[in-house]
């Protein structure tokens, strides 16, 4: 009987280690995959060209790391610029999966605040680069009533960052 117990505990230890290894590997994959598949951000020259090519009014804001729901894994920093045709970031956001750029009519800095107004938020585009990205504003959208750019992770329902634009 003692040998049977020894074998049982050894088997259980193997199963636990296997499960832990799978969990750690899966978690690392979820975190690393977006980084490995991210598009390359714009160069300094491309950012300058974007600013010079715009014919509509430009509004800007600043992503900062010190927002209430930002932390070591969910943050943004840099200048976000909004025109009627395009939105671009001169800076970076923390890497992660399934990021979406939203426009909202009220500045929010927490997940709870965003979830309260998400139905009235305007989803502009997925974010495919984590530094110096640019997205097109869909034609025909009136974005003049929105004063905040927000980045949200759809996969994990996680607030990343927001900036009031003026």
Characterize the structure shown.
- With 166 residues, the chain is α+β, with helices and mostly antiparallel strands.
- It folds into two domains: 37 residues; 121 residues, no CATH class.
- The chain contains three helices and eight strands; from the N terminus they run ααββββαββββ.
- The protein has a four-stranded antiparallel sheet, with no helix packed on it. Strands 5-4-7-8 form a four-stranded antiparallel sheet, covered by helices on one side.
- Strand 2 and strand 3 form a beta hairpin.
- The radius of gyration is 21 Å and the shape is elongated.
- The model has no long low-confidence stretch (mean pLDDT 87).
N/C terminus separation = 76 Å
Q: Give me the secondary-structure category.
A: alpha+beta
Number of helices: 3
Profile the largest sheet. 4 strands, antiparallel
Shape from CA axes? elongated
The overall average pLDDT, rounded, is 87
Query: Radius of gyration, Cα only, in angstroms?
Result: 21 Å
What strand order characterises the main sheet?
Answer: 1-2-3-6
How many beta-strand segments?
A: 8
State the helicity in percent bands.
25-40%
What's the assembly state of these chains? single chain
| Domain module count | 2
Low-confidence runs: none
- State the order of secondary-structure elements, H for helix, E for strand: HHEEEEHEEEE
Query: What is the strand content?
Result: 25-35%
């Amino acid at each position: 009987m003692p040998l049977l117990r020894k074998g049982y505990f050894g088997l259980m230890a193997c199963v636990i280690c296997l499960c832990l290894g799978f969990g750690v590997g899966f978690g690392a994959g979820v975190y690393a995959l977006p980084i490995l598949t991210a598009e390359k951000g714009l160069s300094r020259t491309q950012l300058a060209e974007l600013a010079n090519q715009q014919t509509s009014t430009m509004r800007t804001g600043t992503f900062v790391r010190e927002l209430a729901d930002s932390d070591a894994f969910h943050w943004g920093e840099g200048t976000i610029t909004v025109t009627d045709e395009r939105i671009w970031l001169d800076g970076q956001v923390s890497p992660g999966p399934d990021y979406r750029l939203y426009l909202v009519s009220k500045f929010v800095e927490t997940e709870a605040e965003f979830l309260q107004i998400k139905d009235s938020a305007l989803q502009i585009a997925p974010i495919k680069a984590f530094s110096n990205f640019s997205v097109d504003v869909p034609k025909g959208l009136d974005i003049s009533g929105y004063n905040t750019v927000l980045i949200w992770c759809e996969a994990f329902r996680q607030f990343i960052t927001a900036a009031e634009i003026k």
